[in-house]
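quick one, two chains, predict together pls
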Amino acid sequence: DGGITQSPKYLFRKEGQNVTLSCEQNLNHDAMYWYRQDPGQGLRLIYYSQIVNDFQKGDIAEGYSVSREKKESFPLTVTSAQKNPTAFYLCASSIDGRGLTYGYTFGSGTRLTVV
Amino acid sequence: KNEVEQSPQNLTAQEGEFITINCSYSVGISALHWLQQHPGGGIVSLFMLSSGKKKHGRLIATINIQEKHSSLHITASHPRDSAVYICAVRSRFGNEKLTFGTGTRLTIIP
């Protein structure tokens, strides 16, 4: 079955360390997205990519970095510059960059805790 | 004021009750999405609407573009419907990104 795989489900890191969250999709979708979810807030867009080797900053990109070397993979690195990295991170994809035709597919998320 | 407002924030009901969750938005949109988030965190897309009404099983979603309002209804609710329901809108302008509501936590008691 096609879908999005995020790993790991839970991740613990010490303050000051960079950490990379994995997102892989086998849906042949062009566009991929990273969102952050905090308690009491709606999902906020960190980065998105509409095509391989191209990506754009979302609303809260500071302290994060991404790459899109392959169509199926869109890893997110949480750097030590991110002041409040503890959060739930969701990856999503859509068939095109506008999500108009078939909507979005979401992963199961990674809960990152920085201690 | 948030661009997307959901009500209620929390809803507890008995099994079998008819459920309504509301979403109001303040921007011109090209589409509205209803999403379901289970306790584990994963999100499932339920509906994508640009007008009218859609039905899938016991779920019905409606949208009134003029009033900038959408509702999600659940008929014959069941404990497995317990989840957070999230409304998200795609702006008609700019880069057409999604803006999310904060969600409605639904608990169905057997």
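Chain A has a mean pLDDT of 91.
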